TrEMBL record:
Name this protein carries in UniProt: tRNA modification GTPase MnmE
UniProt-annotated location(s): Cytoplasm
Molecular function terms, GO-annotated: GTP binding; GTPase activity; identical protein binding; metal ion binding
Similarity comment text for this entry: Belongs to the TRAFAC class TrmE-Era-EngA-EngB-Septin-like GTPase superfamily. TrmE GTPase family.
Amino acid sequence: MTDTTDTIVALATPNGVGAIAVVRLSGPDAISIANSVFKGKDLTRQASHTIHFGSIADGDLILDEVLVSLFVGPRSYTRENVVEISCHASGYIIESIIKLFIKKGARSAKPGEFTLRAFLNGQLDLSQAEAVADLIASNSKASQQVALQQLRGGFSSQLQGLREQLVNFASLIELELDFAEEDVEFANRDELKHLIHEITKVVGRLINSFELGNAIKNGVNTVIAGRPNAGKSTLLNALLNEERAIVSHIPGTTRDTIEEVLNIQGINFRLIDTAGIREATDAIEQIGVQRTMEKISQSALLIYVFDAAEITIEELNKDIESLQKPGVTMLVVANKADLLNPEQLAALPHTDRAIIISAKQKRHIDELKHKIYSSAVKDQLSGDETLVTNIRHLEALQKTEEALVRVLGGIDGSITSDFLSMDIKQALHYLGEIVGVVTTDDLLENIFSKFCIGK
């Protein structure tokens, strides 16, 4: 994974029928290899960031007319010489060009190897490299914005600043070890304690941001649940603004879960319409109810829907109590408001987590969407907010926090400089793992093997 002395080649655009495909070369011989088969200008004599028209030929056989883009290192994505050939997107043409480059001395790139080289050559740090994959996989405005912010180094710059401050104190404490017999302190303990408190606040804020960051990246699991005939499927259709689920006045119509994605202000909510919760009348319905309860336990947001014209307050409170799960936010939705008189409406719950709607008449659906969005975002999303979206980063931050707590305990307990130094080094190690200051081949293999070939 770490050899950067050769030249690699791969298709950088998706396979399939299309007008144009891009074949990418990167490495010390990229320009000379491309030049050896290019009929046009001498590519070795051209300036960086220029495009040239000509043909790719295998001897006397013309494979295609192409545009060749030159990026002379270090002014390229990988900081190596990079050549991109825009050819016609025929499978035969693409395969022929790649085979020709391999015959001339290139080798097939592994998954993520172009971005790996960008990391190894100092163009990107590790968290920025991972953001490349997140940007490619982004499927909403919010996930695209978060990935782009990380790619531009917002997350990295915060962590690098923290590391630099810690490194300064670690150096002073290391110096103390050289003068251990003289019992001197070069690192002011009060200043160190203040710094650790400040870093702990930042690390804690980043850890707490993971819930939102993960929701933006992967979508928010949102279960619609309630008793049979409460209007769950009608509500799903109203939220999606299409007839996705079968609606019937017969209780128990929905026997299995139905899943759809609803995008609200750039965030994807994975809506799951479930079987009505009641004592099952047959084995199939019993399985459906069991699946409903499983989905609720796995969700981040529960939309509990009840028939406001039928349910009693006692039944309502019983349902809410039985469905509330740790870590699951619940919205209480009173449906069928069109069937209620003013006195009945006044008796319904009126809280921040409750809303009265008519799914059939699509009344207050926009207000419900706003509550769904705000329950996930909680006013945390802003243009410059750094969010953690990667479980690897979360685990490293949690270990950093644990090491910082030990540092504080050591300062208060007046432990010796050597033990204090060990805990600070642990914090530095885990922060370094995030941005790639500390890496292993196994870690790089695990990260970049998940990339697509050509990126």
